[in-house]
Amino acid sequence: MKIQEKFSQLQECGKKALIVYLTAGLPDFDAMRELMKKLEDAGVDIFEIGVPFSDPIADGPILQNAAQIALKKGVTLERIFQFCGQEKENCGVPLLLMSYYNPVLHLGLSHFCLKCAETGVSGVIVPDLPLEESGRLAGLLKQSGIDLIQFISSTTSARRRKKIIQNASGFIYYISVAGVTGPRDTLSPELKHHVLELKKQTRIPVAVGFGISNETQVRQLAEFADGIIIGSYAMQEILEGNFAQLESAIRKFRKILDSNSGC
User: Fold this and answer.
1) For residue 8, is it within any domain?
2) Rounded to the nearest 5°, which phi and psi values hold at 47?
3) Residue-by-residue DSSP string for 200-224
4) Digit-coded pLDDT (tens) for 214-244
5) What share of the chain is helix, strand, coil (3-state, %, to 5)?
6) DSSP assignment, residue 12?
7) Domain span at residue 208?
8) Nearest to 21 by CA among 3, 38, 45
9) Residue 55's pLDDT is what?
10) Domains in the chain: how many in total?
C-alpha cells in the first residue's frame, strides 16, 4: 500500500495516521514480526523500520542504544530488506525505511532503490541527507513510486520550507522539538501554530514526530496534525520487554486519534 493511499483512506473518515518506529531486528526478527501484527491490530497505520547505524546523529539515547544492540546482533540492510520482502504479503500497512545515508551509499543508490521496490517499501527517510543533495536518490525512488520523506521544523527558513514543500511526497515529517529524538513530557506551545501555518502552504499531509510519549500529547496533536510518529517511547518499551504495555498504549493513542472520526 502506498503512503498517499493510506492517508487518503484516513482523511476520508476524519482519522489521523498513527506511525510507529521500530529499530529493525529487535528483540529479533521473529519477535518483531509478531509484535508488528499485534500493533497493526491495535491501530498502527504505518511502520517506520529503522536501519541501525553506528553514528545516528539525529537520535537520542534510547534509539542510539537500540541501534547498538541491533548492530551487535548482526542486523544489516540486506537482512532488513529480506524481512520487508517477507512482510510485504503479511503486513496490511505501508512500510517506511529510515536509514542514515552511509548504509544507502554503501549499498549503492540504484541497488538500494531496486531493493526497496522489490520488497514493498513505500517510503524512505534519510535524516542526514540535505534536500540539496537528495535529487538523485529522490529521482530513483520516484521512478519506482516510492516517497522520499522530507523534514521541516520551526527553525526551517521560509525559503527552504518552500523548496522542501515543492519536493515533498508521501507526507512531511514535522520535527516537534529542537535536538535529538527522545520522550518529552510536553509539547511546545508554538507547535500548533507552526503546523497549521505549514498546512496552509501544502496539501501534503503533515505528521509530527520527536518526543511524543503520552496521551495528553496525542490528544493535543489530534487537533491539528495529520499524523503522529511514536519512536523512542515505543523502542524503550521494547527494550524493556514491555510488549503488552506498548500494545495497550497504542490502542489508547488510536482511540484518541479517532475521537472525531466519521467512520
Assistant:
1) no
2) -105, 135
3) HH-SS-EEEESS--SHHHHHHHTTT
4) 999 999 999 999 999 999 999 999 999 999 9
5) 50, 15, 35
6) H
7) 17-253
8) 45
9) 87
10) 1
- Of the candidates 65, 73, 81, the residue with the CA atom closest to the CA atom of residue 232: 65
Measured between alpha carbons, how far is residue 178 from residues 153, 155, 229 in Å? Answer: 8, 8, 16
pLDDT surpassing 80 at residue 185: no
CATH of the domain at 168: 3.20.20.70
Domain-located, residue 12: no
The owner of cell 515529517 is 173
The predicted-structure confidence for 118-173, as pLDDT tens digits, reads as follows 999 999 999 999 999 999 999 999 999 999 999 999 999 999 999 999 999 999 99
Those residues with Cβ within 8 angstroms of residue 15's Cβ, 6 or more apart along the chain or in another chain: 257, 258, 261, 263
Pairing of strands 172-175, 95-98: unpaired
Q: What is the mean pLDDT of residues 23-34?
A: 98
Q: Has residue 121 been placed in a domain?
A: yes
Question: Three-state DSSP class for 87?
Answer: helix
Measured distance CA(7)–CA(178) in Å, rounded: 26
Report yes or no on 7 lying in a domain: no
Q: Which residues are catalytic?
A: 48, 59
Query: How many other CB atoms are there within 10 angstroms of residue 133's CB atom?
Result: 11
Please tell me the distance from the alpha carbon of residue 23 to that of residue 27, in angstroms, as a whole number.
9
